[in-house]
Design a protein that fits this description.
It is built from 20 helices and ten strands. By secondary structure, it is an alpha/beta fold. It folds into two domains: about 325 residues, ABC transporter type 1, transmembrane domain (ABC transporter transmembrane region fold, Up-down Bundle); about 240 residues, P-loop containing nucleotide triphosphate hydrolases (Rossmann fold, 3-Layer(aba) Sandwich). The strands form two sheets. The protein has a six-stranded mixed sheet, sandwiched between helices. The radius of gyration is 34 Å and the shape is elongated. The two termini are about 50 Å apart. The structure holds adenosine-5'-triphosphate and magnesium ion. The site of magnesium ion has 4 residues, from helix 12.
């Protein structure tokens, strides 16, 4: 699921993937040795219990010395304290490691989540990428990593058992091997299913999101139950897969626990036999029992945490993929802000989601102070053109240049001064009107906000609202009327007085007063030397523009001065449909 436009060659891809996994492993590499060493200490100290038992049984009890017992106990207590301290340190390191990883990855993942929808991913899928970071952090703070770090120290306990008696060592080893095989079985069985589980979950959540977004329609036309049924079906599919993984995980985990119990009793029995045969001391029985339990505990924990481990591995793989697909961050040279021209050359645009070419071979040029109205039938490609001019959809071929500079060469943080964009479906940010206009700017520039609102002709409308500029617009702007949303969207596009203003059907929800204001807006932008490209279905905006283009069937069907284009094409179907319907004029 590469997100880059032109499929990069394999070498580039695998190199990107390598860099991405390096990025992920960076933190772990630094702490790897520390964690490994700490785990060693913890595991060696974990022998304390076994040795204490042995000493108590074989020494203190035999000699009957209370002093020895007290000394042993004090020593043991001290060692336990150390073990506890090391354990705490290890856990704290892992928590901080998780937080650091999160802090570094979350912004990258979020950037990608913002980028993904234009490539045809659903918002649910996009947000899932951000959640991958949560999954990884959660994993680092779970019981799994300590168990994984304990695993390599298992031989300590095996050797201890072996020293007490080779037979007991061999039996413990046998138990370890069986448990390890169980881990392999768990791995093989769950590998495929867990991916399917995640897919099913995304499908379910996508449906849930779309249903709640369309709640008005569902309620008004009595489709709620059908939506619920659809959700239930997807949920059932997810549950079924989930049950299957949980089942196999739980079964394997139970088997492992049972095996451990059997093994422990077997060791006790065997130990007793060896003691009866005079081959071993009584204290050793208990020591072996404790040590063998400890030897097998990490495997048991790994199996118990298997789902978490799988989830983390999957999250890791997906993050590597995602990071590898993320565009490299470049810092273009700061060029002077454009002020002369917009030049579109042989622009061909394909949908980044489907690859289908939606607009081909469009060329035209606009000079500062000019305004272009884009007309044409529905589905003709007007919004596609605007998206390409805005740089949201990268050109497949050809270029969009401002003063000769390719749009992609303009630094992100300067785009605000270069480009203003009002999309056809105005979605406002969750926040106040002022936050929408200045797009969460760190420093409030009241002057620029006021300027944008006045040029957009919305200042009076905003101050008339209960909280004025601080009025909350509601989720996706739903607390505003469609016309209000559109006008706030217009002010948002004009903030910072950008050189190129792209308006996709800005008058769709406007009343007569709003349209008049819009014409004023276009004239003001032209007067200050800006360029306006405005898509319109209704002819009202035409009074403020000097150029007209007709986009039809993904082609530029006409381009020229308002008068010439309208005169030439008045007999055709497309233009009257586009501009003749000025019923509100
Ligand atoms: N996100 C998308 N992914 C794939 N195809 C798309 C996407 N958006 C639009 N299209 C397709 O591109 C073509 C042009 O759509 P576009 O939105 O540019 O039309 P339009 O001229 O703006 O129409 P309208 O006047 O209805 O807004 C349509 O055939 C449409 O199906
Ligand atoms: Mg459109």
């Amino acid at each position: 699921m590469s997100m880059s436009r032109a499929a990069p060659d394999r070498l580039t891809q695998s190199r990107a993937r390598m860099q991405a996994s390096d990025l992920l492993r960076l933190d772990l590499r630094q702490f790897w040795l520390v964690l490994f060493g700490l785990s060693g200490l913890i595991n060696i100290l974990a022998l304390t219990g076994s040795i204490y038992m042995m000493q108590v049984y074989d020494r203190a009890l035999v000699s009957g010395s209370v002093e020895t017992l007290a000394f042993l106990s004090a020593l043991t207590l001290g060692l336990y304290l150390f073990q506890g301290a090391f354990d705490t340190i290890r856990a704290q390191i892992l928590v901080r490691l998780g937080a650091r990883l999160d802090r570094r990855l979350a912004p990258i993942a979020h950037r990608i989540a913002i980028d993904m929808p234009r490539y045809g991913y659903t918002t649910t899928e996009a947000l899932e990428r951000s959640r991958m970071v949560d999954t990884l952090r959660g994993f680092l703070t779970s019981g799994a990593p300590p168990a994984l770090f304990d695993l390599p120290w298992m031989p300590v306990f095996l050797v201890f058992c072996y020293v007490l008696h080779p037979v007991l060592g061999a039996v413990t080893l046998g138990g370890a091997v069986v448990l390890a095989l169980l881990t392999v079985v768990a791995e093989v069985r769950s590998r495929k299913v867990s991916q399917a589980v995640q897919q099913a979950l995304i499908l379910r959540n996508t449906a849930a999101e779309s249903h709640s977004r369309n709640s008005d329609v569902l309620i008004a036309m009595g489709a709620t139950e059908r939506a619920v049924d659809r959700f239930v079906k997807l949920n059932d599919e997810h549950l079924e897969l989930q049950t299957r993984t949980s089942d196999s995980g739980a079964t394997i985990s139970s088997i492992s626990r049972m095996l451990r119990l059997i093994l422990q009793s077997a060791l006790l029995g065997l130990g007793a036999m060896l003691v009866i045969g005079g081959e071993m001391s009584a204290g050793s029985i208990i020591a072996v029992s404790v040590a063998s339990a400890r030897a097998l505990a990490p495997i048991d924990q790994v199996l118990g945490n298997w789902r978490g481990i799988l989830a983390a591995r999957q999250a890791y793989a997906q993050l590597v993929e995602t990071l590898a697909a993320a565009p490299a961050k470049t810092r273009p040279v700061d060029l002077p802000l454009p002020k002369d021209s917009l030049k579109v050359e042989n622009l061909t645009v394909a949908s980044p989601a489907t690859g289908r070419v939606l607009l081909s071979d469009v060329s035209f040029e606009l000079k500062a102070g000019q305004a272009l109205a884009v007309l044409g039938p529905s589905g003709g490609g007007k919004s596609t053109l605007i998206r390409a001019l805005a740089g949201v959809w990268p050109p497949l071929r050809g270029s969009v240049r401002l003063d000769g500079v390719n749009l992609s060469q303009i630094a992100q943080d300067r785009l605000a001064q270069v480009l203003g964009y009002l999309p056809q479906d105005v979605n406002l940010f969750d926040g106040t009107i002022v936050e929408n206009i200045d797009r969460f700017a760190e420093q409030r520039d009241s002057q620029a906000i006021y300027a944008a609102a006045t040029v957009a002709g919305v200042h009076a409308m905003i101050v008339a609202m209960p909280d004025g500029y601080d009025t909350q617009v509601g989720t996706r702007g739903t607390a505003m009327s469609a016309g209000q949303r559109q006008r706030i969207g217009l002010a948002r596009a004009l903030y910072g007085a950008p050189f190129l203003v792209l308006l996709d059907e800005p008058n769709a929800s406007l009343d007569a007063a709003g349209e008049k204001a819009l014409n004023e807006t276009i004239r003001t932008i032209r007067d200050r030397g800006g360029i306006v490209v405005v898509v319109a279905h209704r002819s009202n905006v035409l009074s403020a523009v000097d150029l007209v283009a007709v986009v039809q069937n993904g082609k530029l069907a006409a381009f020229g001065t308002k008068e010439s284009v309208l005169a030439n094409r008045s007999g055709e179907v497309a233009v009257p449909a586009a501009i003749g319907g000025g019923a509100r004029a």
